Amino acid sequence: MRLSDPVALRGYAHPLRMALIGLLRREGPMTATRAAERLGENVPNCSFHLRQLAKYGLAERAPAGDARERPWRATAFVTSWDDASDDPQVRAATDALNTTQLAQYTRQAEEFLARRADESTRWRAVTRFSDTSLYVTADELAALTERMDALLAEYDGRIADPSSRPADARRVTLVQLALLGAPAATDGDTAPGDGGATQGDSDTAVPDGR
């Protein structure tokens, strides 16, 4: 699902709506009542936001085995949007959406860190925070992103088909942030925080995500 309309972009830029879509993608069709239970929200609130998601094409009614139930499902496994638009309205809307998404990532990381001590050493060793500074052109960064996307796509089948997952598999979110350094930076200069931890240096963890 690719969003391009500013109204739809702003409509999706809501923490509960993002959480609802993530829940439907992870666990499949469910009613607003069940979604409210899973997210710790009230039912009327979830019902309202599910209807709004349907308005923007992100959710729809799913077939129900029981006439009393009215489940919802996500219309797609992935939502994307154009961050390179020159349209001021689209740029403002995507900025709002990206800000909401970043807040979601931060919340998920904080929740994981709060329970990190309960995880096994095996999982703590392979989930972490890290950052690396690169000097690349825009075309090289685009090519690198495509290569990473292709690698991750090898596991897409396990999203739709739970039976294809190994017995010990867990849901993991890999967050990709490509952040430009200040234009005045020169070779040899490193902005505070850049390259602070390379892969393998950090013993902290990234949480199970959306």
From TrEMBL:
Pfam families: HTH_20 (PF12840). Residues 183-210 are annotated as: Disordered. Residues 183-192 have a biased composition (Low complexity). Transmembrane segments: none annotated. This is Helix-turn-helix domain-containing protein.
